Amino acid sequence: MNENPADLAPELCVLAAAVAGLMAGMFLPRRRQWPVPAVCSAGLVAGLAFAGAAATRPGLMAFDAFSVDAITHVTRITVLGSTLAVVLLAAGRVRGHPRESEHHVLILLSALGTIMLGTSSDLLVLVAAYLLASIPAYALAGFGKDAPGTEAALKYYLMGALLGVLMLGGVTLLSGVGRGTAYPVLRAGLAGAPPAAVAAGLVALLAGLLFKAGAAPGHYWVPDVTEGAPPAVAAFVTTVPKIGAFAALYRFGAETSPDGWAALLAVVAAATMTLGNLAAFGQDNVRRLLAYSTVSQAGYLLVPVAMAGRTDLARPALLYFVAAYAVTNLGAFAVVVAAGRDDLAGYAGLLRASPLLGLSLVVCLLGFVGTPPTAVFVGKVLMFGAALDGDHAWLAVVAAVNTVASVFYYLRWIVPLFRRPAGPPRRARGATALAAAAALLSLALGIAAGAALAA
Amino acid sequence: MTFLPGWPGGLAVDGLSAVLLVTLGAVLAAVLAFAAGQGYGARFFGLMLLFAAAMAVTVTATDLVLLLMGWEVMGAMSYALIGYEWWDERRVRSAGVAFLTTRAADMGLYAAAGFAIAGAHSLRLDDLAASGTPWRDLIAAGLVVSALGKSAQLPFSFWLSRAMDGPSPVSALLHSATMVAAGAYLLIRVHPLLAATGWAATLVTWAGAATALVLGAVALAQRDLKQLLAASTCAQIGFMVLGAGAGALGGGTAHLVAHAAVKSLLFLCAGVWLGVLGTKRLDALQGAARRHRTVGASFGVGALALAGVPPLSLWVTKDEILAGAGGSPALLAVGLAASVLSAAYAAKALLAAFRPVAGGGAFRVPLAQQAPLVPLAFAAAVLGALGLPPVADAWRRLLGVPDGSGPGAWMFALSGVLAALTVGAVMAVRRIPEPAWALHWLWLEDAVSAVVVRPAFAAARGLARFDDRVVDGAVRGAARGVQAVAGLAGRRVEFRVGGLVAAVGRAARGLGALARRPQTGQVHMYYAQAAVVLAVLVVVAVLAG
């Protein structure tokens, strides 16, 4: 058994940064807590460096519960990069806040749980990771202590509690009929288990993971939290936990391959993308619009998950799409943070008032649609390829129809940008730079897709 | 030098090419010196040099492709030079007539090249005779047509009349060492091919003989010095073509060289008079030769040589040709008749130029215009030496043609006496019949205009009308039809499609509203919905598993 802690160096870096941040926050004066985000950022950067180094080495298994393979590498790099972006995005907003250090530490702990979600290949570790990823996020949602934030936190928590309990039940059921909790054991055990018990356990397990992924039927929290929580937190909870959830879903599907997996996930994917797109049609609040957009994107992301083990295209499709989605979603939220407006009318004339910000938003929204040469386009192409290759042509058709329908509400946001500006633009240099960087990264990932996929 | 990869050929200088190159160079130098005295611009000299260069390529080419290139460039340059004074519409039209006529005949050369590739699998001029039937006959036919056209032989002669509208130095070059000489050169060069077909050599022989006779008569009837000289060129080239057909290659080449000297000399003299006296009409040129000694004497020598008066050059070379054609009495008779005619028209020119008239003092001619006349006159006088037995043998060896028996002494005597008598008779009679058919060059241009040009234009107009009414009409009709259909579609179909799109939009909005219904904001409803959906998923999983 491999018990070398160095194999989990990125996770340990994040943990160390979180602990250091917590300790520093206890002793630093309340008004001078700037070292905390610095320490947290340093920990994330160090984690990124270790993750990048680990990506060049062959895969292995650590502590019999953590797989260090391509999925883990992409999960680590995407989660760490996204978390770094969120920390930078939030740093200005919570500067001087009485609980500034807690904010950053909670973000780091949730990110640590997310990485573990994507890394674990054991149901018990998965449950622990689920809790670690969720509980700090509940606290973050209510961080503002205002009415919408409190309501959002409560709904988030209640949904998470119900579906988490269901997940625990599912894990119990599966470990009972499968005689183990490690995926390789389950693979053998589930094959001979009673199908109805396996089906019930599988759906119960999925309930928790779909909650983290923001997919139906665990998506109810997404619009409320996105609208009610502080914008940076909204960006975090709609981006980071999903990465780990999809990685965990894919890993479970690919490594245990239970019966009926593809059909179950395909139904969930089709329902999620359709629901998200249709509900986004009438939204005038950009945060709710983005929330439903993330639900529909979760639907697309479930397509390669459903195809896990059926085609070689599924894994690159999932990994590329999830990274592209994270970059694009963070860019869009950075624009919302920088513009400081939640209503669609507030974005009139943004392209003239602040060309950089407007252009970044156009790139990100067109990226969501899947317009070349953005990163999501490549992800979507791979996703369609995986669906067709996995003999689920109907799913590809549903995804294509949904993509066409989604153009409508993204354009509803893009069109006002070209109007005459209503008032002077708001200055938010950091968020603007982050939005521009995300847009550029989206274009770069789209253009250099060949090289990125080959690596 | 190889021009086309895989197709041997290129440029090479042999005896015949060398003779023609030297002739070309000498005449070109004389003509350019003369033209420099008349003060032409850079465009003129550029075109003249290109013209001469094209002729040089033509005579040194060993394959049909290069020959064709030189041939075509020469034709284009002749157009540019005849129409040199482009502001005069008649000259430009003349250039067009000359160019289109020679160009039409040139099609034969293109066809010959194509047939050569198909039949002989070689473009080399040497290999053409070896191709099989019917290719050999087709190649020969194409070559003969293009050579007769370039050399202004019957029935293409009329273009040379129109070419007289060009400047005199152009005429001097075009009538002597280039253009018209190219046709004769080509026929001499491909004589083995003509001989191999059998019919082609005979055809060429009689075409040359007919041209020599008929255009001789035409020349005799002309009232314009340059027109007279032009028709005489056709007639003299006719002798060369006769020689090329009958196998008198040495005589034909010698005639070409001597004629080049004579004719360039005469045209330059005509150019001097045209420049000084402003006319080329024979009746207005009365006594012109007496008014400047050098020009007059040169013209006298040239005209006497043209008449074939012993011992000047053309007397000897023409007899060489006639001796080579001696096998056929009819041919000999035609040739002698043509000789008599040439003596007659030369005498007519002499008569006009030397007739003593009262008044009209001497005039001055620039040295640059006088200087070239003297060596040309000298050459016109002495080139007959090429026919003297020892020189003639060397000449034949140079050209690489078989030794033929030289003309008998009786032939020399007969033609010399005939020429002298004719000149004397014309001088004595002083009146020359000028039949209208001869004056108007047999109405060849009108005939071509009636038979070829007008029908072609009529057909073109008819086709244009067909294009306008039928083809264009169909296109316009189609456009109108499409517009009508589009209007119909716009009224009947667009409305329904638009309605359909609007319905889809309404349905999508309705579904969107429906999709937001579950989002009640109340957690117990979320719980209930999630539980129901999960139960449904369990059913799905059981059924799928």
From TrEMBL, chain A:
GO terms for cellular component: endomembrane system; plasma membrane. InterPro entries: NADH-Q_OxRdtase_suN/2, ND/Mrp_TM. It is found in: Cell membrane; Endomembrane system; Membrane. The keyword Mitochondrion does not apply. It catalyses: a quinone + NADH + 5 H(+)(in) = a quinol + NAD(+) + 4 H(+)(out). It comes from the Bacteria. It is a multi-pass membrane protein. Residues 120-404 form the NADH:quinone oxidoreductase/Mrp antiporter transmembrane domain. One of its GO terms (biological process) is ATP synthesis coupled electron transport. Keywords: Cell membrane, Membrane, NAD, Quinone, Translocase, Transmembrane, Transmembrane helix, Transport. The chain crosses the membrane at residues 12-29, 36-54, 74-94, 106-133, 153-177, 189-211, 261-282, 289-307, 319-338, 350-372, 392-411, 432-454. Its EC number is 7.1.1.-. GO terms for molecular function: NADH dehydrogenase (quinone) (non-electrogenic) activity; NADH dehydrogenase (ubiquinone) activity; quinone binding. HAMAP family: NDH1_NuoN_1. NDH-1 is composed of 14 different subunits. Subunits NuoA, H, J, K, L, M, N constitute the membrane sector of the complex. PANTHER family: NADH DEHYDROGENASE (PTHR22773). NDH-1 shuttles electrons from NADH, via FMN and iron-sulfur (Fe-S) centers, to quinones in the respiratory chain. The immediate electron acceptor for the enzyme in this species is believed to be a menaquinone. Couples the redox reaction to proton translocation (for every two electrons transferred, four hydrogen ions are translocated across the cytoplasmic membrane), and thus conserves the redox energy in a proton gradient. Belongs to the complex I subunit 2 family. This is NADH-quinone oxidoreductase subunit N.
From TrEMBL, chain B:
GO terms for cellular component: endomembrane system; membrane. It comes from the Bacteria. It holds the Pfam family Proton_antipo_M. Its main location: membrane. One of its GO terms (molecular function) is NADH dehydrogenase (ubiquinone) activity. It is a multi-pass membrane protein. Residues 61-339 form the NADH:quinone oxidoreductase/Mrp antiporter transmembrane domain. The chain crosses the membrane at residues 15-35, 42-59, 65-84, 96-118, 138-160, 172-190, 196-221, 228-250, 256-276, 297-317, 329-351, 371-389, 409-429, 526-544. This is NADH:ubiquinone oxidoreductase subunit 5 (Subunit L)/multisubunit Na+/H+ antiporter MnhA subunit. InterPro entries: ND/Mrp_TM, NU5C-like. It is found in: Endomembrane system; Membrane. Keywords: Membrane, Transmembrane, Transmembrane helix, Ubiquinone. GO terms for biological process: ATP synthesis coupled electron transport; electron transport coupled proton transport. The keyword Transmembrane applies. Signal peptide: none annotated. Coiled coil: none annotated.
